[in-house]
Amino acid sequence: MQEGGSADRVEPEASNAPSRTSHGVEPGGEGERVSRASANEGVGHAALSMLKNGMRNVGAVAARNLVSVLPQTAAREAVRAYLTPALAAAPAGVATAAGAVAAAAPIVQNFVGLVRDIQNGTSSRTRVISRTAMMVTTGGFLAASAATGTLAAAAPALVAANAIYTPLRDLVQYNVQLKDNNQQPANMKRVLGSAAAYGVNQGLVNEAMDRVAGAARGRFEAETSVQSGVTTDGTPQVSTAALETHTNPSASLGVDVPSSGYVLARSAGFAAANFAGETLDELTLRGATALQQGNLSNLQISVGWRPQDERTWSAVADQAFTTNAARSTLFANAYMGAYAIPSPPGAASDAVVGSILGGLYTAFIKVHDTPQRALPDEERGIDELASTGRGRENAAVLTIEDETRSTSGV
């Protein structure tokens, strides 16, 4: 046998033959092309599925906000527009008193809620801290507004928000509920991140509203007249109420009545801006919670009617003294802060509003935290229910998780 014979040589046919993978697919061959095409098709289907799921989630959130945010915002702004000149024409002290009542209401609500938590065994450290923070902050802004004499100017916004917007919104959102398949509420890290995002969100919403108001003034300027008054020293002065609402004088009412076109345009624009901001906020917190749990690609948000057996007087009390108390706190502080803190209209004022709302957002979310033993049935598990035999005795007390956007499983 020659050195380097057949046993040691690589045959020419073998050296020129294409190598094969362990799966028998030739690189660059038809089999590999089919494999790659299948993989790409799978990725495409997954991406399409995620896109469709995301669109369904956006649709669910938008559907509820269409009935719980859009009309309520429009109603709030219409009431505010008509109330501004009415309070300006009222006897001295009426506007200040109205503003004080509207601002103090959430303090009373939170205090009653604190007492109810203790009596019902639903108190927790985070709830106590959140309620206390909201009461102290609101009290501070109320004192500052009284000291700076800006409470009367803020009164129309405060009354419209806390007597019209927040109760109507919470009423609808309680009955038309959102649920998702997140297994746990958002942790503090995600809530803080969402709070920062919410502050930016609301600053931008406020800027959008400023632009809407400016555009509405310009559009209806030709058909409105501004009532002028006279200061104590005899110099002409444009009515603050007229500037705020772009009004027409009405002898029959004795006040400047806003142009209906201006009110409609302003209310519609404000409603659209708030709808967009609230929809984004809802998706942000639920998405952040899903990301925390590794569930973002499978996040499913649904909208539906709350079951009849959850609509109890106890649930009504929880809405009034927890959810509505917290939401009214946000508005009271934002409006009092915007009027009391010296800042020109525009970016500076928008930043003030965004900072206040973002700063209180965490308290708004965490005030809905409850002790583990008080969680509703669907969140506790069948085994625990079987061992405790407690059934649904606390279900009515704790059916406000949906409103916090920190709900657990569907």
Task: Provide structural commentary.
This protein has 410 residues and is mainly alpha-helical. It has one domain (63-173, 180-290, 309-404). 67% of the residues lie in helices and 6% in strands. It contains 14 helices and six strands. It has helices at residues 12-16, 30-68, 70-89, 94-120, 125-148, 151-175, 188-220, 240-245, 260-292, 313-340, 347-366, 377-380, 382-388, 401-404, and strands at residues 176-180, 228-230, 236-238, 247-250, 255-258, 301-305. The protein has a two-stranded antiparallel sheet. Strands 2-3 form a two-stranded antiparallel ribbon. A hairpin with a 5-residue loop joins β2 and β3. α2 crosses α9 (260-292), α4 crosses α10 (313-340) and α5 packs antiparallel against α11. The chain is globular. The termini are far apart. 41% of the residues are buried.
What is this entry, summarized?
Residues 1-12 have a biased composition (Basic and acidic residues). Residues 1-35 are annotated as: Disordered. The protein is mainly α and 410 residues long.
The average pLDDT is: 78
Could you estimate the helical fraction of the residues in percent? 55-70%
Which structural category do the helix and sheet elements fall into?
Answer: mainly alpha
Count of DSSP strands: 6
Q: Helices and strands, in N-to-C order?
A: HHHHHHEHEEHEEHEHHHHH
Q: Choose one word for the global shape.
A: globular
Counting structural domains, the number is: 1
Oligomer: single chain
Q: Report, as a whole number of angstroms, the end-to-end distance.
A: 79 Å
- SS strand fraction: 5-15%
For the largest beta sheet, what order do the strands appear in spatially? Answer: 1-6
Q: Can you tell me the residue ranges where pLDDT is under 50 for at least 5 consecutive residues? A: 1-25, 224-253, 373-410
For the largest beta-sheet, the strand count, sense and barrel status come to: 2 strands, antiparallel
Helical region count?
Answer: 14
Gyration radius (Cα, Å) is 30 Å
Biased composition (Basic and acidic residues): 1-12
Region (Disordered): 1-35
